[in-house]
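User: Could you go from structure to sequence for me? I need the amino acid at each position, not a summary. Structure tokens:
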């Protein structure tokens, strides 16, 4: 069970209290999205940068794995991403997960001076970046403290899910359509078969709301549920899902 904290319309004290409380509850993972502006609600509400928060999370949690859900490939040089991830991994004692995706939120690009381009161009850039990230991780001294798994978010069957099969140890979907999720899982399995990879090496996760049935997601092939939460970060729904998953 995981928790995604939305860093919008809040403050850093509230975020820190939420992730330390989640860690104490025994949650498996904690995540922060990678955007520069709110995704909904008040467009000018407070907002905080992802990797800075993750560095703080590394030293104020003790057991949960954690990472960006998901980092936008366009915002940072791939070699820099690898070094940032490795450094945060050391701060946490080896608990960091590098979640990454192609990017989609146009306001971030426009306001921060990145070229938005097309979805195809952003996805092609992700495909080029992943080997660079892996290569840099293999060269860094010291290397990551833990396994530093790679999570890829997205559902495109011809390109994104092939990248998942080629590079990722985790996959995440934001879809709530269980039939579609089951189909996407089968597509990942087929890509794994084509490249000769064991599909069981890829953990399947989904962002969910508080009222989901964990067993229904498990039947669709999802073994890791991630509840998305915003300020004031009520963790009672998270505890409910933890209890349901443990039944």
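Assistant: Here is the amino acid at each position, in order:
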């Amino acid at each position: 069970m995981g928790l995604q904290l939305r860093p919008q319309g809040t403050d850093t004290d509230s975020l820190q209290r939420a992730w330390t409380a989640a860690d104490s509850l025994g949650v498996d993972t904690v995540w922060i999205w990678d955007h520069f502006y709110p995704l909904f609600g008040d467009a000018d509400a407070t907002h905080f940068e992802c990797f800075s928060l993750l560095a703080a999370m590394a030293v104020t949690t003790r057991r949960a794995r954690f990472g960006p859900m998901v980092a936008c490939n366009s915002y940072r040089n791939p070699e820099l991403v690898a070094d940032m991830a490795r450094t945060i991994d050391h701060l946490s004692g080896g608990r960091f997960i590098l979640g990454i995706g192609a990017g989609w939120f146009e306001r971030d690009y426009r306001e921060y001076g990145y070229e938005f381009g097309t979805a195809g161009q952003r996805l092609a850039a992700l495909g080029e970046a992943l080997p660079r990230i892996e290569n840099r991780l293999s060269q860094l001294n010291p290397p990551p403290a833990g396994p530093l798994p790679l999570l890829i978010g997205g559902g495109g069957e011809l390109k994104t899910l092939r990248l998942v099969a080629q590079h990722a140890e985790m996959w995440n979907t934001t879809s709530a359509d269980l039939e579609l999720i089951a189909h996407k899982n089968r597509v990942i399995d087929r890509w794994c078969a084509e490249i000769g990879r064991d599909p069981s090496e890829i953990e399947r996760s989904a962002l969910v709301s508080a009222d989901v049935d964990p067993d229904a997601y498990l039947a669709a092939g999802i073994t890791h549920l991630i509840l998305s939460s915003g300020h004031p970060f009520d963790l009672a729904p998270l505890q409910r899902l933890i209890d349901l998953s443990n039944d």
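One structural detail worth keeping in mind: The first strand starts at residue 2 and ends at 5.
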